[in-house]
Design brief:
single chain, 404 residues, alpha/beta, Rossmann fold, 2 domains, seven-stranded mixed beta sheet, 17 helices, 40% helix, 16% strand
């Protein structure tokens, strides 16, 4: 079994909160992980089972009496009435780790959680495998601009092979499984089981076209008009559908850095498809080499780097304060960390020969009146090295696999 970064955070939450909730897209390993960690006396039930789902919805009190804590409930979003009864049960007990829950539809799920279990629940967002989980680097360190670490070089061809394949656990556990067959089934399952249950979706074919359009634009600024045109729907519909992909954990919207001191800056977020393999499949790429040599390679690499950072921070229970910069003149900084009133700017480039010219836009942040911290160019150069007094050339490996 593949070891996951989130193990320690899950154990900590179970020891300190009465309820643990693990959210994330379908098939990223939520259930497998919790089953491997649950105490022997904890019962497991899944609301994918129609009989149990109906009982949990129709008589949640009886359901929880028949399935007593400690209890692991899988796909809990299917029975929203359970939450208020779980609250009543945990309020009677002076114990932690009473209920472990998993859920895939985060928008509806989180609304119910915030209403019923505030202060009683600890939440972990689980994503598909990160690079360090794939190679089983158990000493992985979070990427920290204040503490850049060297790491063993990763070949550009290997990176694009993983970008193309993605991080869905089943593709690594079942090595003979066809990538294309897997993703086709994944999309069919997602649409028929999750999307169809949401009233915002009327035309499944149009929604598939919308997903293809979003995946094809990963790493680019969000343009609702273009997405709507591709799918043949209205702009308001495209906006609603994007919120569904975000709430499902399939897409992350990287917000632009906003400051009253900065003029002519963009206000649109950037699309980050959280599993690049799924994005590459939807966008129609037939091989890693085709993608690597394409004009979209830079956008996919940028998506991959940002998603890897988000995955690791999520696994450690941290929401990274990250953004990007772009102005009306198309000057851009791909990634900005904001910590302790300090901005840390980064450029992400598919090159092994970085130049100082690539960081010229970092000066655009001077007008913010904030301290500008360590930054640099994340690229395929072999070694971590300075490019000037404040900035580094940073190998991709130092971001996704440091601490090896």
């Amino acid at each position: 079994m593949y070891s996951r970064e989130a193990v320690e955070m899950i154990k900590n939450i179970s020891e300190t909160f009465k309820v643990l909730l693990v959210t994330g897209p379908r098939q990223v390993g939520k259930t497998t992980l919790l089953l491997s960690l649950k105490p022997e006396n904890m019962e497991y039930v899944t609301l994918d089972d129609e009989v149990l789902r109906n009982q949990a919805n129709e008589d949640p009190k009886l359901f929880l009496e028949e399935h007593k804590a400690p209890l692991l409930i899988d796909e809990v979003q299917y029975a929203p009435r359970l939450f208020s009864y779980i609250k009543m049960n945990v309020d009677k007990e002076d114990k932690n780790g009473l209920y472990w829950l998993t859920g895939s539809q985060q928008f509806h799920l989180m609304n119910n959680v915030s209403e019923s279990l505030a202060g009683r629940v600890g939440i972990v967002s689980l994503n598909s495998f990160s690079y360090s989980e794939i190679v089983q680097n158990k000493n992985k360190k979070l990427f920290d601009p204040n503490n850049l670490l060297p790491a063993k070089k990763i070949d550009v061809n290997d990176i694009f092979s993983i970008i193309f394949k993605g991080g869905m656990p089943k593709l690594y556990i079942e090595e003979k499984l066809s990538r294309d067959a897997y993703f086709q089934g994944y999309i069919d399952t997602y649409i028929t089981r999750d999307v169809r249950s949401l009233s915002e979706i009327g035309d499944e074919l149009a929604f598939r076209k919308f997903m293809v359009s979003v995946a094809s634009r990963t790493g680019e600024q969000l343009n609702y008009s273009a997405l709507a045109t591709d799918a043949g729907v209205s702009v308001p519909t495209a906006s609603k559908w994007m919120s569904i992909l975000v709430s499902a954990g399939l897409v992350y919207l990287l917000e632009p850095y906003m400051s009253s001191e900065l003029k002519r800056i963009t206000h649109m977020p950037k699309i980050v498809f959280m599993d690049t393999g799924l994005a590459a499949y939807l966008a129609g790429w037939e091989s890693a080499k085709d993608l690597q040599l394409s004009s979209n390679a830079g956008h996919f690499l940028e998506t991959y780097i940002v998603s890897e950072i988000i995955k690791s921070y999520n696994a450690n229970g941290i929401r990274p304060n990250i953004s990007y910069y772009r102005d009306k003149d198309k000057n851009e900084i791909d990634l900005i960390f904001y910590k302790n009133n300090t901005l840390y700017p980064f450029k992400i480039k598919k090159t092994a020969l970085p130049t100082k010219e690539m960081i010229k836009n970092f000066n655009k942040l001077i007008d913010t009146k904030k301290k500008i911290g360590t930054g640099g160019i994340i690229c395929f150069y072999d070694n971590l090295t300075r490019i000037d007094e404040n900035n580094y050339i940073i190998p991709v490996s130092s971001v996704i696999n440091s601490g090896e």
